[in-house]
From TrEMBL:
Its main location: membrane. HAMAP family: Syd. It is a peripheral membrane protein. This is Protein Syd. The keyword tRNA-binding does not apply. It comes from Alteromonas salexigens. It comes from the Bacteria. Pfam families: Syd. Transmembrane segments: none annotated. Keywords: Cell inner membrane, Cell membrane, Membrane. Interacts with the SecY protein in vivo. May bind preferentially to an uncomplexed state of SecY, thus functioning either as a chelating agent for excess SecY in the cell or as a regulatory factor that negatively controls the translocase function. It is found in: Cell inner membrane. Belongs to the Syd family. InterPro entries: Syd (IPR009948), Syd_sf (IPR038228).
Amino acid sequence: MTTPVTDALQDFVARYQSAAQQAGQPLSTEYDSAWPSPCYQGSGAEGEQVRWQPTPQAGNLSFHNVEEALSISLNPQYCEFFTSFYSDNLTAKAEQGACELLQVWNEQDFERLQQNLIGHLLMKQRLKQAPTLFFAVTDEEDFILTVDNASGAVMLEQVGKPPQQQVADDLASFIRTLEPLIQS
């Protein structure tokens, strides 16, 4: 089943792969046999550069354990964002500047994301701030992009502080505005 978020992310991934190809910079990363991923396009010697590509997930990842542990319902678009693809992080240019869309490389990476999200949500609770859900880092130190859990709006937020600025009405709209930023 496709949703606005999965459609927008799928389109961005296609544009990202195309931009890398046009730049003559195939997507590659150091091979790590201890960190397997369906993204690897072959194998290599430990530490050798190998090609990778974003790979659709089979639909087996879920945030239900986080929701149960914290007695919270997570914004569905946020959950769709992290359960659509296995991928390395994706760099992009937004209207406000450069950002890096966080992604999960494998199931263990998804577990690590969940642990970090729990830590983030507990910090928000302790600071008596509304829950936000991080999905990207920016080129500004300590600034992240989050989804407001209640409204679904994309927000610019300094870590530990309430969101400062609404960037988009929803995650799909934000992703559609991004331009791939291929690192040389």
